[in-house]
């Protein structure tokens, strides 16, 4: 699937660049203006490692606006689908040069998504507009704006489908939850990108190219706000990770235990269909699931709570929940930590995941040896009557069998 999408994007790019170089630019002033906007958007892109769905919102909005541009100051434009793709690709390449030079350029997935999304929007709009059909059917009033809005919605859905396909092809996770996460992501910066693209196209049609800088300012401000939010969120996660290591530093748990449990819990949660916000809460709870051991006078041998009596496990879990509630993390994190020692039929799904994964890591001792892993899984299966949810255990077994998770070193 990845190869097919890359091949389609590459074929469209080569075809568009070749046709544009051979025939020259139609209305080069308009093309240069939108190309410049995309270059600026790429220059202000977020770091590739920040994990955001849309790292270059201004460039994406400019590309969508050019794909849906029908007029310039009341005069019909004549650029077609291939020129749209060529201008977007060329401008994106120019704007990405500084990022590539420092190793933070756009990923192949992002580049393919941009080409396919813009091509979809241009194919839906440009042929109909250039043939005069949109003018004949809808005129230039509010119905035309509704058509643009509908095309933007379809384009956003196309982008979500492609993004989910790319992730699904690279990972063992189910396609449905991945698509749901992408669709939920459209409610954030994605909706701002689509709205700005539509507004720019409509504004240029009436006021000309002077509308470009005016209507880009709101998105630039929104991008700045999102970047600050992302920075705060990154710092927040780093703080939680550091707090989770307190049990390791104090010698209560084995080195790397919390990170291993968090990574495996997130993988199991994604396979079982949890959405991104739920996965974040699950990861935080998994990182802090042993924080209650700091309240103990005597450390648990090897930090392993799975072999302890049920009453002692529950006491440590409640102590941990009390500590977590003082850290300011979402209340759901504390609930998972508190309920991780309950019988699985009384637990919410995230608590079931943390309990099973924690027990697996305790029983395997952090070892990746096949014998240790199989023995630990066998003990979990024997405990599915009361302690561990069978579906969670089998999901964990599938993930371990695939070896799709990057091992977390013990140190």
Strand content: under 5%
Shape: elongated
Proportion in helices = over 70%
Number of strands: 2
- Residue-averaged pLDDT, rounded? 82
What Rg is obtained from the alpha carbons, in whole angstroms?
A: 26 Å
How would you classify the quaternary structure?
single chain
Contiguous runs where pLDDT drops below 50 for at least 5 residues: 406-411
Strand line-up in the sheet with most strands: 1-2
Number of helical segments with 4 or more residues: 17
Describe it for me?
- The chain has about 400 residues and is an all-alpha fold.
- It has helices spanning about 1-25, 30-45, 55-65, 80-100, 110-130, 135-140, 140-170, 175-205, 210-245, 245-250, 255-270, 275-285, 310-325, 330-340, 350-365, 370-380, 390-400; strands at about 70, 75.
- It has a two-stranded antiparallel sheet.
- It is elongated.
- The chain starts with a helix and ends in a 9-residue tail after the last helix.
- Residues about 405-410 have low confidence and may be disordered.
Please provide a brief summary of the model.
The chain is mostly helical and 411 residues long. It has helices at 2-23, 28-43, 57-67, 81-101, 108-130, 133-138, 142-170, 175-207, 211-244, 246-249, 257-271, 276-287, 310-325, 331-339, 349-364, 370-382, 390-402, and strands at residues 71-72, 75-76. Strands 1-2 form a two-stranded antiparallel sheet.
Topology:
Layout (H helix, E strand, L loop, with lengths): L1 H22 L4 H16 L13 H11 L3 E2 L2 E2 L4 H21 L6 H23 L2 H6 L3 H29 L4 H33 L3 H34 L1 H4 L7 H15 L4 H12 L22 H16 L5 H9 L9 H16 L5 H13 L7 H13 L9
Helix pairs in contact: 1-4, 1-5, 2-3, 2-4, 3-4, 3-5, 3-8, 4-5, 5-7, 7-8, 8-9, 11-12, 11-15, 11-17, 12-14, 12-15, 13-14, 15-16, 16-17
